[in-house]
């Protein structure tokens, strides 16, 4: 049986079922609690029955995945609760564990957050290094649009801004989303006012549980938090024989 030893949001049960079935189709899973459920310590998430060798072989992989996924889902649910009643939605980032990105982003969805881009291929984000190397915001956006036209690609463009001057420059060039990076609250509110719904807005940079509500109240559409996936302590779970 999978014993939950810490309060939180359970995640990864569907993945555990897939791992058990892939390794040994004779393993049988009886699910008691489904992904996304708030759980208390002492609850049983599922029982698995079948050959002992197969269970012991898959035990650590299942626990590693579920403990990390549950921690991410728990953090996501908590931060999302802090911005309830505002228009803002919580986003993850690409700050994920190597070779584990899809699993971690799945956990964010289970926790009630939204996925930002999965990789470099599904959305273009122009950040400070891109802008500096291109010679400025306008040049970076022009070159990006030229690239998309030349390759017949239809991808959204997001641009990172650090000042109100940069926000104005991006607005004049036209993009799908503007990132407001490490701005103080008053600057962010003014940036949202300047943008005026012309495109979506994303707040980013050092946002914590103590500041996320104030950021959301600035009127941004999205808040991205890298700590959802790169600064997580695994939820305590254990597979016990019975």
Based on the model shown, name its key terms.
242 residues, alpha/beta, six-stranded parallel beta sheet, two-stranded antiparallel sheet, 12 strands, 43% helix
Task: Kindly summarize this structure in a few lines.
43% of the residues lie in helices and 17% in strands. With 242 residues, it is an alpha/beta fold. The strands form four sheets. Strands 6-11-10-9-8-7 form a six-stranded parallel sheet.
Commentary on this structure:
With 242 residues, the protein is α/β, with parallel strands linked by helices. It is built from nine helices and twelve strands. The protein has helices at 13-23, 52-82, 101-110, 128-134, 137-150, 164-173, 185-195, 212-216, 227-230, and strands at 2-4, 8-9, 28-31, 38-39, 46-49, 89-91, 124-126, 157-161, 177-181, 200-204, 222-224, 237-239. A six-stranded parallel β-sheet has the order 6-11-10-9-8-7. Helix 1 runs antiparallel to helix 2, helix 2 (52-82) crosses helix 3 and helix 4 packs across helix 5 (137-150). It is elongated, with a radius of gyration of 21 Å.
List the helices and strands and how they pair.
Elements: E1 2-4, E2 8-9, H1 13-23, E3 28-31, E4 38-39, E5 46-49, H2 52-82, E6 89-91, H3 101-110, E7 124-126, H4 128-134, H5 137-150, E8 157-161, H6 164-173, E9 177-181, H7 185-195, E10 200-204, H8 212-216, E11 222-224, H9 227-230, E12 237-239
Helix pairs in contact: 1-2, 2-3, 4-5, 5-6, 6-7
């Amino acid at each position: 049986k999978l014993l939950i030893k810490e309060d939180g949001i359970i995640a990864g049960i569907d993945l555990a079922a897939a791992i058990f079935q892939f390794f040994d189709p004779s393993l049988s899973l009886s699910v008691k609690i489904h992904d996304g459920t708030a759980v208390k310590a002492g609850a049983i998430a599922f029982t698995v029955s079948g050959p002992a060798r197969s269970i012991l072989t898959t035990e650590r992989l299942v626990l590693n995945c579920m403990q990390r996924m549950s921690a991410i889902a728990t953090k996501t649910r908590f931060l999302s609760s802090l911005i309830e009643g505002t228009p803002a939605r919580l986003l993850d980032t690409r700050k994920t564990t190597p070779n584990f990105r899809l699993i971690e982003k799945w956990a964010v969805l289970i926790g009630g957050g939204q996925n930002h881009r999965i990789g470099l291929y599904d959305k273009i984000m122009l950040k400070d290094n891109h802008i500096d190397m291109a010679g400025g915001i306008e040049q970076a956006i022009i070159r990006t649009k030229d690239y998309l036209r030349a390759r017949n690609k239809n991808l959204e463009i997001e641009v990172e801004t650090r000042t109100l001057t940069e926000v104005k420059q991006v607005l004049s060039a036209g993009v799908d989303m503007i990132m407001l990076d490490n701005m103080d609250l008053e600057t962010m509110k003014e940036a949202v006012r300047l943008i005026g719904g012309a495109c979506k807005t994303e707040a980013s940079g050092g946002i914590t549980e103590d500041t996320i509500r104030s950021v959301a109240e600035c009127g941004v559409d999205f808040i991205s938090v890298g700590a959802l996936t790169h600064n997580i302590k695994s939820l305590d779970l254990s597979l016990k024989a019975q």
